[in-house]
Design goal:
By secondary structure, the protein is mostly helical. It has a domain at 14-90: Helicase, Ruva Protein, domain 3 (Orthogonal Bundle), CATH 1.10.8. It has helices at 2-11, 27-37, 56-70, 75-86, 100-127, 138-149. The relative contact order is 0.08. Belongs to the CcmH/CycL/Ccl2/NrfF family.
Amino acid sequence: MKRLILVLMLLATPLLAVQPDEVLDDPVLEERARELSKGLRCLVCRNESIDESNASLARDLRILLRERLVEGDSDAEAIDFIVDRYGEYVLLNPDMRGANWLLWGAGPLMLLLAGGMGFVYLRGRSKASRQAEAPLSAEEEARLRDILNR
């Protein structure tokens, strides 16, 4: 029974999608490629790195990344090449340059704006003078008694 549980646990571990024909001969370059591919998004799969994805586009990106590293590109140059080709969406963790700072700050900014608006509304509501309700006229009182007596 314990062996069965051990085998099932080993089968449940996440497997990488890198195919044997993609693996580089140089272990240092392969390790760099693996580290870089963990930060690149598969454009077909949602929030899955190209290292984990089995999609054909992810395979193409893995091969392209390895080709760039074999040609002698630094890590930054290889990533910049892929970002130039596919856009910033390919990065799993985009940095805060360009227009991305607006996206990073939009959530906290909206929270502060909504909190401020709620505070102003509640404060204004508590300060508002309550209008005294005018008493019913004689005609309205007669009509009310008529309705209640039916």
